[in-house]
Amino acid sequence: MSGISNKELFLQHVAQTSAAPIGLEMKNASGIHIWDVKGKKYTDLISGFSVCNIGHSHPHVVKAVQEQAAEYMHLIVYGEFIESPQVQYAKLLTDHLPPALNCVYFTNSGAEATEGAMKLAKRITGRSKIIAFNNAYHGSTQGALSVMGGEYWRNAFRPLLPDIVHVDYNDDAVFELIDSSVACVILETVQAESGITVPRKEWLQAIRKKCDEHCVLLVFDEIQAGFGRTGSLWAFEQFEVIPDILLLGKALGGGMPLGAFIADKKLMSTLTYNPVLGHITTFGGHPVSCAAGKAALEVLLQGEYIQQVHQKGKLLQTHLQHPAIQHTNSYGLWMSLKFKDEMTNQQIVHQCVKNGLVTDWFLFAPDRLRIAPPLIITEAELTEVCATIIMSIDEIVNES
Ligand code: PLP
After folding, report:
1. Residue 86 located in a structural domain
2. How far apart are CA 148 and CA 146, in angstroms?
3. What average pLDDT score do residues 229-258 get?
4. Which of 70, 119, 219, 365 could lock onto 195 through a cystine, CB 3.0 to 4.6 A?
5. Domain-terminating residue out of 268, 302, 336
6. Dihedral sign, Cα of residue 297, residue 67, residue 111, residue 180
7. Are both 319 and 340 inside the same structural domain?
8. Which domain holds residue 29?
9. What is the mean pLDDT of the chain?
10. How close is the Cα of 111 to the center of ligand 1, in Å?
């Protein structure tokens, strides 16, 4: 196979779902930086899509991975043996969650966590109807795709789950829909792929109240919003609403694959009977992933990173001013910049990459540029990043 570049092999043998992948060949990563095989350094402005909240290959996480891999890796399917990394991570997570979120089912991914939560809600309530939101993303498997909020993305894969009702995020119309036929309402605590949409606090609280009145379960997806991104460990803390089921993923594994749905033990125990093994996974809660995730959370909790999020977010807002930026949405260290159209945004994204910044767009907002750097980024680094973004915008705008 000599003479064929990795790029050609990538395009031929690795399944492609995008006609225009970024396609950079990377060599190593550390902290907020990634280096390509030619030695060019990039600042990671999106944290591998909100995974690397404490940066890449943090030494505490690497050590935990190495030690656990040397001890044992896969032993048996989820939930049979007592595996210390799972137990200790579940304890650390639940110590930092409200009392009703005390039992963790570890999965392989965010999508599997969504699947598990929907099954749990159906099993507990005996109902099938699920309320979800337009512009929501909860994963790409068929159940998760059914609650995804966009017909363009769903249509080619029908039939999907029946009994799913979609409504606009932040719209009071949802209140009329929550009744005793509904199993659960599923929403992102802060909606990510719409380009960052923050819920009204009263709206979220009213949904909670309606769900309580009709014994409907409330599911919050913090797969992207969790782990400090919004300025608190969990985004829901800032809205003073506690879900019945919490979905985690991405940063949960500290760079290793891991997801989870978390609920009260009494609710979760319905997966134990009739049928037994109500959710089965071979690799969910892999010991190396749990060891990595626990180490990453320790780093996040020990530093001042979460406390600094709002200040760093404000710095972005101050520095990212340009006539071509039509609008910004932001929450915590998480921002979207809206340009006049998708094409302009694509050009600016590519120009940023050329100038050494890894960024991207949003699924439901292709005209918006994504900013979600590792939370460990310093204010000086952020100021530099902002200057490079403004320079990249200038280069594109002045060219056209
Ligand atoms: N939920 C949200 C809010 C997400 O952003 C994602 C992934 O982008 C998922 C669920 C699905 O997670 P995964 O890609 O691990 O299946």
Report:
1. yes
2. 6
3. 98
4. 365
5. 302
6. negative
7. yes
8. 6-53+305-399
9. 97
10. 6
- Is the separation of the CB atoms in 26 and 56 below 8 Å? no
**Phi (first) and psi of residue 371, to 5 degrees:** -130, 115
Give the end of a domain, one of 272, 302, 332: 302
Ligand 1 pocket member 111 (CB < 6 A):
yes
Cα of 132 vs centre of ligand 1, distance in Å, is: 15
Whether the per-residue pLDDT at 176 is higher than 90: the answer is yes
Under a CB-based contact definition with an 8 Å cutoff, are residues 58 and 254 in contact? yes
Ligand 1 atom at shortest distance from the alpha carbon of 49:
8
Q: Whose CA is nearest to atom 2 of ligand 1?
A: 138
The predicted model gives 142-158 an average pLDDT of 97
Which CATH number is 111's domain given? 3.40.640.10
Q: Any alpha helices (H) in 234-286, and if so which ranges?
A: 265-268
Same domain, 351 and 255: no
Nearest atom, ligand 1, residue 225 CA: 3
Distance of CA 399 from the midpoint of ligand 1 (Å): 36
For range 336-356, the mean pLDDT: 98
Kindly give the number of the ligand 1 atom that is closest to the alpha carbon of 112: 16
- Give the whole-angstrom CA distance, residue 72 versus residue 76: 11
Helix locations, the chain, DSSP H = 6-13, 47-50, 59-71, 84-95, 110-125, 142-147, 151-154, 173-177, 201-213, 265-268, 287-302, 305-319, 342-354, 379-399
Mode of pairing for the β-strands spanning 26-30 and 368-371: unpaired
- Indicate the top mutation candidate among 17, 137, 193, 245 to test ligand 1's pocket, ranked by most ligand atoms within 8 A of CB: 137
Nearest-atom number in ligand 1 for the CA of 249 is: 15
Gap between the Cα atoms of 291 and 61, Å rounded: 8
**Cα-to-centroid distance, 398 and ligand 1 (Å):** 36
Using the structure block, give the residue that is written with the tokens 């594109």.
396
Is residue 203 assigned to a domain?
yes
Q: Which atom of ligand 1 is nearest to the CA of 259?
A: 15
Write down the pTM of the prediction. Answer: 0.98
C-alpha 394 – ligand 1 centre gap (Å)? 33
Q: Per residue in 112-142, pLDDT tens?
A: 999 999 999 999 999 999 999 999 999 999 9
